[in-house]
Amino acid sequence: MRQLLNWTVAVPLLAIVALALTWGRDLGAVLVVVVALLLAGAVLAAVHHAEVVAHRVGEPFGSLVLAVSVTVIEVGLIVTLMVSGGPETASLARDTVFAAVMITTTGIVGLSLLVGARRYGMTLFNAEGSGAALATVATLATMSLVLPTFTTSQPGPEFSPGQLAFAALASLALYVAFVLTQTVRHRDFFLPVGQDCGEDEHAAPPSDRTALTSLGLLVAALVAVVGLAKIESPAIEDAVEAVGFPHSFVGVVIAMLVLLPETLAAVRAARRGRIQTSLNLAYGSAIASIGLTVPTIALASVWLDGPLVLGLGPTQMVLLLLTVVVSVLTVVPGRATRLQGSVHLVLLAAFLFLAINP
Q: TM spans, by residue (predicted)?
């Protein structure tokens, strides 16, 4: 009974109940506020349970669990919206994936570097592992989001069916290769280095039962986060329209909500001097976002009506190119200061500003 009274247990369960009761319904102002509060609570609970699981299985498996969990549910949300939506959802997958890539590689990385550098003066991480992850992100983003703008087999920024099939298989192959490298062959490249202040490293790992309970509650919390974000989307759309922002900005807002658990987990890891864990979360989420979304959308396109727009516009491609160049210069030395964190956050601000004022 005492365990049920724990907020990290109660909130995910309440959020799931709220999701079941409000799914498919038009919400009044009071319910919108209640759902928003449960959404915030589910985010915080997800971070807690992700850290419990991570402490039990160790790095980089802990980061992988959270990144894959969020991405799988995010992919489900994208497919659901595309199936139930109209022509305006043709670019939903592109907008969501690009937003996720920019938020992770500029926002999560920048915030983690800035928090870590403020506490330790200089952040240290493994250049081999972070560089390999960044190279995978750049390759996936270019193949799936840039090439469709320049291919000529299909009019518009779209892949032909054959090109989409190749991009899907290549994305899935790269994702599997990265996971095997991260967890089996070169796991040491993705382990935290230096600066560990040991706040919780010497604590006994949780039992298998506790870890499995947290894993179940983590999945429940993440389902609630994505589902409640979907329920809140009409209110978000109304707010975006009311302030005069482009409709595509709704995807950015939802991506930010979905990525909140990873952001908070990455910042908490940075405060403990575990910058490599933060980078694992950021780059792993970007890789999973593309590597799992593109194959799923390619499969779903068999029964989805209408075009599937994947190619980025000129402004977005410039931002992506600048982000890759800056990220390479940040990762190669294996250490970073507040300046690098600030540069990444300015890139995030540029992405958000241009999403509002394209």
A: 5-23, 29-49, 61-84, 96-117, 129-150, 162-181, 211-229, 249-269, 281-304, 310-332, 339-356
Does the predicted model carry a pTM greater than 0.90? Answer: no
The string of DSSP codes covering 50-64 is HHHHHHHH-TTHHHH
Beta strands in the chain (DSSP E): 123-124, 335-336
CA distance 23 to 27: 10
* Closest by CA position to 278, among listed 290, 268, 291: 268
Q: Which of 124, 123, 113, 105 minimizes the C-alpha distance to 341?
A: 113
Question: What's domain 60-200+225-356's architecture?
Answer: Up-down Bundle (1.20)
In contact, 144 and 310? CB cutoff 8 Å = yes
**Which residue ranges make up each domain of the chain?**
60-200+225-356
Task: Please write the tens of the pLDDT for every residue from 116-134.
Answer: 999 888 898 989 999 999 9
Handedness of CA 247, 248, 252, 258 (dihedral sign): positive
Instruction: Say how far apart CA 319 and CA 212 lie, in whole Å.
Output: 41
For residue range 212-251, list pLDDT tens digits in order. 888 888 888 878 877 887 787 777 777 877 888 887 787 7
DSSP string, 140-162: HHIIIIIHHHH--SSSSS---HH
Instruction: Dump pLDDT digits (tens) for 138-191.
Output: 999 999 999 999 998 888 898 998 999 999 999 999 999 998 888 888 888 888
Residue 202, judged by CB atoms within 10 A of its CB (0-12, 13-18, 19+), counts as exposed
